[in-house]
Amino acid sequence: MADTIYAYVQTASQEPLPPPGRTTGTIYWIQKNLFSSFSNTLLTVVVGLFLLWLLPILYNFLIGHAVFQGDANTCRINVDGACWVFIGDRIRFITYGFYPPAEYWRPNLVFWVGLALIIPLVWTGVPYKILNAALFFLVFPVFAFILLNGGSFGLLRVPTELWGGLMITLLLAVVGVVGSFPIGVLLALGRRSKLPIIKTFCVLFIELWRAVPLITVLFMVSVMLPLFMPQGTTIDKLLRALVGITVFYGAYMAEVVRGGLQALPRGQYEAASALGLNYWKSMAFIILPQALKYVIPGIVGTLISLVKDTSLVSIIGIFDLLNAIQSAGSDSAWATPTKSITGYAFAIFIFFILCFSLSRYSLYMERRLNTGHKRGN
Questions:
Q1: End-to-end alpha carbon distance in the chain
Q2: Average pLDDT in the 30-52 region?
Q3: Radius of gyration over every alpha carbon of the chain, rounded to an integer in angstroms
Q4: Orientation angle between helical segments 105-122 and 140-149, nearest 10 degrees
Q5: pLDDT tens-digit series, residues 115-129
Q6: 97 bridge partner residues
Q7: Which CATH class for the 164-369 domain?
Q8: Buried b (16+ CB within 10 A) or exposed e, 144-175
């Protein structure tokens, strides 16, 4: 009996085990993500060789051989690099379009006030969110319109035909982003409604706007819409473009939000009913907060597409950033070989900053709202 008991007791020492492999640090990350398998290693080598070929070319053109000081003659002599002095010389026109130079302080003030309101609105640690939201969504649009358009309070009236450049691009992007989201939420709720009239209207509305390209929408609101208006009635071209872009992306946003509503377990709807909440309270406090959390990547992807598609307004004569760069390059005094490429590179940089900022903020919100449902990056 004793032999049976002690048969399971270890009497000899075992060889010490090797220390565990490195699971942190740069070397471990490189091994895991870049050289974890043969195919991964091959892809890493191919991409590395491509970057070794591409990056020196970009560096030499954008920085190494670029012209940062001088004039148009300097750019004509140096044809191997970007002509950044062209951007520096025409930066005001690229930023404001034909807006009167003496009134530049007005769009500048609107920009800084808007920035001062939106930063605490998206920064989670700042208090008084309701007051901040009321100021940004209700007060700020009126303030911005009065200041930019003028015609009251002793301000010189500046018609929208003179607005242009980066100012128009930011205006289209901000209005489109802010306006398309609530439209999309309402359409998504309407499409899931049990009321046949509301559901049918929302389905037809969404499918109609998603069935046509944005360029067609812009042509319709710019060319065709005035034909259906009473004689003598005119609607500002910029306002028509703002409405067209906002409603167009509101339809796309509706489908993204509807995906989040369908992904939510049925038990959440039943829990809201068990608490005695009516339809709107259950949607506002239980359903929508969870559904929107699921579809943050889709929402931000739609908003990024909206920001980039603001450049399409140039085809209907609105002087956006891209149109301003093209018009600035038509000046014969700046007839240099690299002028156009430099202008487009500057436009790419601006759009990259806008879209990358939206992307990083969405990642921040995903990490902050992660409550155990996240399965991977």
A1: 57
A2: 90
A3: 28
A4: 170
A5: 999 988 888 778 888
A6: 163
A7: mainly alpha
A8: beebbbbeeeeeeebebeebbbbbbbbbbbbb
